[in-house]
């Protein structure tokens, strides 16, 4: 037999139904066939010749190859590999002075060629240096325990080594390097602009190279950005504290003004409580404090020398809005159409106008007691009220209010 092909394996994709697969290389015996099934996840299983559910049968056709028939069809997504594995033995025995055994000699040469082909296939799957490259030794003597949890690397001379680090810390530098670095060297910056940023060398560099040169260095730890974020956070906290103090001041003003209005102390107390609650909320959230302060500021407008026509934001007055008139010393409430002074004493005094233009305006402000009658004249213009004694006292008393 001659060996006219360099093929030593055949590979097929499973489809869940095909069971027969051809191999196209010669073998010496069926025991030299290896069948491997690789799953979609990469798990490899060596099959056995036989009739079991995970086995296969084989029909060899000599130098042309043969057929492998799987008991169970390989599933879709799997790969079936048929490979020749020739035994590494030499069984040809030459007897002195016997006729030359040409056929036996040829079989031995064929087996040697098969072995060479299989070794070549394995070498083609191995890691190698190129034919124009060199390495002193591809061996390393590090024990299994010393290699555990470490990585295979190359030392400064390009030789194989076992190392624990993916990078080596080389110290600190400013923005410009003061030493030549090689790949995987780690350097920490000392400048304020880069604030202890940490870099790793990705390509050999020379003295005077910039740490921000992305062709030679990559940023591992951006400490500068972290510090900037911390500074911004501190500023936000300070702003929140300012909002809290402002809200607290507004609450104190509201409480002071409310103390002068005993008749409306419950309302003023409620407003002061709301303001205090707003101040507490402001302490935990600057955003919440600002919102609460704006809402309170629209309700209590503070101390003013004259009646305002809009709130502190320039918007329309809200019904129930308050302000303290520093000229009259009175707390005022917006009724929805006019400011009404809140009286501090228990007797409510009604202010009337002699030139009111609303009919019965004065009469609607008074209530007649027993033995008293009220009469309004000049409705809607210079109104007057006449109070008449209608009781047993014959002396009638008329009082005109204008």
Largest β-sheet summary? 4 strands, antiparallel
> Overall mean pLDDT score?
80
Number of helices: 5
According to DSSP, the number of beta strands is: 21
Proportion of strand residues: 15-25%
Secondary-structure element pattern, one letter each: EEEEEEEEHHEEEEEEHHHEEEEEEE
Strand order of the largest sheet: 1-8-3-4
Q: How much helix is in the residues?
A: 10-25%
Number of domains: 4
Shape: elongated
Task: Assign the structural class, choosing from mainly alpha, mainly beta, alpha/beta, alpha+beta, or little secondary structure.
Answer: alpha+beta
First-residue to last-residue Cα separation: 143 Å
| Gyration radius from CA atoms, angstroms | 52 Å
Q: Unreliable segments (pLDDT under 50, ≥5 consecutive)?
A: 345-354, 396-402
Overall description:
The chain has 402 residues and is an alpha+beta fold. The protein folds into four domains: 9-124, no CATH class; 165-221; 244-342, no CATH class; 363-401, no CATH class. 24% of the residues lie in helices and 24% in strands. A four-stranded antiparallel beta sheet has the order 1-8-3-4, with no helix packed on it. Strands 2-7-6-5 form a four-stranded mixed beta sheet, with no helix packed on it. α3 (223-258) packs antiparallel against α4 (265-284), α3 runs parallel beside α5 (286-299) and α4 runs antiparallel to α5 (286-299). It is elongated, with a radius of gyration of 52 Å.
């Amino acid at each position: 037999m001659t060996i006219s092909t360099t093929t030593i394996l055949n590979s097929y994709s499973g489809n869940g139904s095909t069971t027969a697969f051809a191999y196209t290389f010669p073998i010496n015996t069926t025991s030299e066939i290896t069948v491997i099934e690789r799953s979609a996840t990469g798990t490899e299983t060596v099959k056995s010749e036989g009739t079991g559910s995970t086995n296969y049968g084989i029909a060899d056709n000599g130098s042309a190859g043969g057929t492998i028939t799987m008991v169970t069809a390989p599933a879709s997504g799997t790969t079936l590999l048929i490979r020749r594995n020739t035994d590494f033995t030499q069984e040809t025995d030459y007897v002195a002075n016997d006729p030359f055994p040409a056929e036996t000699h040829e079989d031995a040469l064929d087996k040697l060629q098969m072995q060479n082909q299989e070794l070549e296939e394995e070498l083609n799957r191995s890691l190698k240096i190129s034919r124009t490259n060199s390495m002193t030794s591809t061996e390393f003597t590090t024990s299994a325990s010393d290699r555990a949890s470490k990585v295979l690397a190359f030392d400064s001379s390009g030789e194989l080594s076992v190392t624990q680090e993916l990078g080596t810390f080389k110290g600190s530098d400013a923005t410009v390097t003061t030493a030549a670095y090689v790949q995987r060297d780690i350097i920490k910056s000392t400048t304020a602009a880069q604030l202890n940023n940490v870099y790793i060398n990705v390509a050999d560099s020379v003295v005077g190279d910039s740490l921000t040169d992305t062709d030679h260095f990559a940023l591992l730890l951006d400490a500068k950005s972290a510090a900037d974020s911390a500074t911004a956070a501190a500023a936000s906290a300070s702003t929140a504290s300012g909002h809290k103090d402002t809200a607290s001041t507004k609450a104190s003003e509201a409480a002071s003004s409310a103390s002068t209005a005993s008749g409306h102390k419950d309302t003023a107390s409620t407003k002061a409580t709301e303001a205090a609650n707003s101040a507490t909320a402001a302490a935990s959230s600057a955003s919440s404090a600002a919102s609460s302060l704006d809402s309170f500021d629209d309700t209590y407008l503070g101390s003013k020398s004259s009646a305002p026509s809009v709130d502190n934001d320039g918007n329309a007055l809200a019904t129930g809005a308050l302000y303290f008139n520093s000229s009259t010393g009175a707390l005022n409430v917006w009724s929805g159409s006019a400011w009404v002074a809140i009286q501090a004493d228990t007797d409510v005094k009604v202010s009337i106008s002699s030139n009111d233009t609303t009919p019965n305006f004065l009469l609607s402000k008074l209530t007649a007691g027993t033995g008293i009658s009220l009469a309004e004249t000049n409705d809607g213009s210079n109104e007057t009220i006449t109070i008449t004694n209608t009781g047993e006292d014959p002396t009638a008393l008329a009082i005109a209010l204008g």
